[in-house]
Amino acid sequence: MERHEYFNLFHNISTEDYALLADRLKPEAFKKGSFIIVPGQVQGKLYFVKSGVQMSYFDADNKTHVIAFTYPPNLCAIPESFSLQQPSTYFLTCLTDSELEYVTFNDLQQLFDQSQQLERLFRKMTEYVLAGMISRHIELHSLTIEERYRIFCQRSSHLLQLVPHKYIASYLGIDPTNFSKLFNKVKI
């Protein structure tokens, strides 16, 4: 899906407004295993994923706790670090070689001053992220492990081939042994 088409899923923007943003985007490539953001660092760039898979996570009690995966055509960020320009409390890393494009925080603020439509687009995208986080929180606390697994497979089944299963298990709040049983038992 082309980026302008992706944006229009959230809010229709004109070709002119899209060009304002596209003109500010710069490419950046990361190798598998590279960190995009680490705890204590302020995210100064908002990324758009062109290729690859990224993961946000934190470590606690000798365990990795996965928060989210990103992949094309999504945004890639630690939302509160970028939006509030505050230090991150968790990691953003590349699970595969990744090609991203970014706009800096300052450039994005200038674009918002130039274009109400771009500001509205990003507000709606932020609302979508918030709604998704709330839905995920509810799923983690109200659904069985099999229901969580099935929903994940409906949304992101391609990640089963790209992401180590221990990370998907962590994301779903499932013990890796139980995840392996689900993976082998549940046909999607």
Automatic annotation (TrEMBL):
InterPro entries recorded: cNMP-bd_dom (IPR000595), cNMP-bd_dom_sf (IPR018490), RmlC-like_jellyroll (IPR014710)
Species of the source: Fibrella rubiginis
Location of the Cyclic nucleotide-binding domain: 9-52
Pfam families reported for this sequence: cNMP_binding
Matching PROSITE patterns: CNMP_BINDING_3
Matches recorded under Gene3D superfamilies: Jelly Rolls
Protein's name in the database: Crp/Fnr family transcriptional regulator
